[in-house]
Write a structure and sequence with these properties.
Layout: H1 2-25, H2 31-39, E1 40-41, E2 44-45, H3 53-69, H4 74-83, H5 88-99, H6 108-120, H7 126-137, H8 145-168, H9 179-186, H10 194-206, H11 210-222, H12 238-246, H13 251-262, H14 270-281, H15 286-298, H16 307-319, H17 332-337, H18 341-352
Antiparallel strand pairs: 1-2
Helix pairs in contact: 3-4, 5-6, 6-7, 7-8, 8-10, 8-12, 11-12, 12-13, 13-14, 14-15, 15-16, 16-18
Length: about 350
């Protein structure tokens, strides 16, 4: 009996210390424990706090959300009904209302289905973020760490082109916020699991240099050895990979952007593809010169063959270090009589280096 009383006393003492720390220092229990206690209990999903909606939707719906929290849902639902066809954010707000049992019935499983439907319809990528959160905690769905990782990784990779664009323009990501701050705001009060924070830190590190961003873009387009923060393989996401490369200011990125278009991995038109390859070729990039030589030799549905240009780029490619076996055999007339006319003068101009826009 004394032993039991002593153990109980010790536990109460620890609890008092934790409560005191929380009051004095803002100490919180580990994120995973707090999430499970707050939003999923005994395997059952619980409604999210309604007041969190004010930070995300308060500028437009603030007064009506407060009225709804006080029991009057009419003005808020009428305002949403008027705007939802023109403002996609109001469609999201409807899902958020049901997640909080505010004005709409609480149905976390139906909310997950709606997030998934929005993704399939191509309406938004935020659905990946909310589905990742749900699968991570089992909020209205079965806990599935693999699904949570895949959805969150898709979301992060959709953001990385913006991250690169902000670096290219020497501005903080997505306005004046860090990537982590932006994503935490997008969660609308939902606490971010540690796996999310680790993934965001990985994206920041990977895109902090041109070489890292290029490696990520190449892996997403053609595959490669680059791994996610947890050591798993990255998915093939050519659209995101091409967008990342388009926001890297380097000769290699220009070449790869053009090649991605030639390989059918981006929606860029022929003019963009040709300009990307030319820009890299003008800076003595052997791979770009090879692609241009073969492209002008064979032509395609948006470029007529031009044997003079083809021979020019074939010769430049060899000068830049490419191999004969990477291109078409030299044309008989050019082999016997050499390269003449505009193609020759253009080739000489390239060799001066004055056409290279990267220094």
């Amino acid at each position: 009996m004394r032993k039991a009383v002593a153990m109980t006393t010790r536990r109460l003492g620890v609890l008092c210390v934790v409560v005191t720390l929380a009051a004095w220092t803002g100490f919180q229990p580990p994120a995973g424990a707090q999430e499970a206690i707050s939003y999923v209990r005994d395997g059952m999903a619980l409604p999210l706090p309604a007041e969190d909606l004010l930070s995300a939707y308060g500028s437009v719906h603030g007064a009506n959300i407060r009225a709804a929290m006080a029991g009057d849902c009419g003005p808020l639902m009428q305002q949403i009904a008027r705007r939802r066809d023109r403002h996609f954010a109001d469609q999201l707000l409807e899902i958020e209302l049901s997640e909080r049992n505010l004005c709409l019935p609480f149905n976390p499983t139906e909310a997950a289905r709606q997030w998934l439907s929005s993704l399939k319809a191509g309406q938004m990528t935020d659905g990946h973020l909310f589905l990742a959160w749900k699968y991570q905690l089992g909020h209205g769905v079965k806990v599935d760490q693999q699904a949570a990782r895949e959805h969150f990784l898709n979301y992060v990779l959709d953001l990385t082109p913006w991250l690169r664009l902000s670096r290219l323009r020497h501005r903080p990501p997505l306005g004046n916020e860090t990537l982590s701050e932006f994503v935490l705001k997008q969660l609308v009060g939902r606490p971010a699991p540690q796996a999310f924070l680790d993934g965001l830190a990985w994206a920041e590190r990977q895109t902090s240099t041109d070489a890292g961003a290029i490696a990520l873009g190449k892996t997403l387009i053609w595959g490669g050895s680059l791994r996610y923060v947890d050591g798993s393989r990255l998915p093939r996401l050519p659209k995101q990979g091409a967008a990342i490369l388009a926001n890297v200011d380097s000769v290699e990125a220009q070449y790869l952007s053009g090649k991605a278009g030639l390989d059918g991995f981006s929606s860029r038109n022929g003019e963009y593809i040709l300009n990307s390859l030319r820009s890299a070729g003008h800076c003595r990039h052997a791979g770009a010169a090879v692609e241009l030589a073969n492209l002008y030799h064979h032509g395609n549905d948006w470029l007529e063959p031009d044997l003079g240009e083809a021979e020019k780029w074939r010769r430049l490619a060899l000068l830049f270090g490419a191999g004969e076996d990477e291109m078409f055999p030299p044309i008989f007339l050019h082999r016997v009589f050499g390269l003449h006319g505009p193609a020759r003068s253009s080739m000489e101009h390239v060799l001066t280096g004055r056409l290279c826009l990267h220094r």
